[in-house]
From TrEMBL:
Residues 87-187 form the CoA-binding domain. Modulates transcription in response to changes in cellular NADH/NAD(+) redox state. Residues 24-63 bind DNA. Keywords: Cytoplasm, DNA-binding, NAD, Repressor, Transcription, Transcription regulation. The gene is rex. This is Redox-sensing transcriptional repressor Rex.
């Protein structure tokens, strides 16, 4: 198994669909490592992530990891390769804008540090909220955004109501933030060079409702008397 530099990974152009599955592989590998598993197979990773084994092998081939016939993949080595591909060999600063119920819940989420992210700031424009302690940080006013987002690699999270999200997005971009996770139920307009990931709980529930409805409408198999 050969190591691949971040530059090489970018040059190869890993498909978005593969990138979306890499965190699942890393989570499965971390669990395996915690149980003392030294090596694994594409079949085991497939079972742990719900992905076909052929897809697992194809995804990992983008990292230069092809496994060893009869042995499989070294769990530690593969974990490092995936972490490197995802940029998780360092901590990424994260700031959350919007200290409503969702924002506070995310601020209290204990998985940031374990995932390679450092929560550095919480922000809100409501004077009644600014200055309050939340999850060990003090909520800052939006006027502090340029200073708090000074690091060029800061990731922004929007947890405001939909009507305020675009304004917050514009402010983040103006402050130099080019990677944004949006929880607001609205599509954001951003210039080229800005990456936005949308988390829409309502949409996901609607998709689940669709599949549930389809299953309930499926013809029932006749039961022999």
């Amino acid at each position: 198994m050969t190591e691949v530099s971040a530059t090489e990974i970018r040059r190869r152009g890993i498909p978005d669909a593969t990138v979306a599955r890499l965190p699942d592989y890393l989570r499965a590998l971390t669990s395996m490592s915690g149980r003392g598993v030294v090596s694994t197979s594409s079949e085991a990773l497939a079972a742990a992530t719900g992905v076909g084994s052929a897809m697992v092998r194809k995804d990992l081939s983008f990292l230069g990891s092809h496994g060893v016939r009869g042995v499989g993949y070294d769990v530690t080595h593969l974990s490092v390769e995936i972490a490197r591909a995802l940029g998780l060999t360092r901590d990424w600063p994260v700031l959350i804008v919007g200290m409503g119920n969702l924002g506070r819940a995310l601020a209290a989420y204990g998985g940031f540090a374990a995932g390679g992210f450092q929560l550095v700031a919480l922000m809100d424009r409501d004077p009644a909220v600014v200055g309050q302690p939340v999850a060990g940080l003090v909520v800052s006013a939006m006027t502090a955004l340029p200073a708090l987002a000074a690091a060029p690699d800061t990731l922004g999270v929007i947890t405001t109501p939909a009507h305020a999200a675009q304004e917050v997005c514009d402010a983040l971009i103006a402050a130099g933030v080019t990677s944004i996770l949006n929880f607001a139920a609205v599509t954001l307009n951003v210039p080229a060079g800005v990456d936005v990931r949308k988390v829409d709980v309502a949409t996901e529930l609607q998709i689940l409702a669709f599949h549930k409805q389809q299953r309930s409408r499926a013809p029932q198999l006749a039961v022999a008397p």
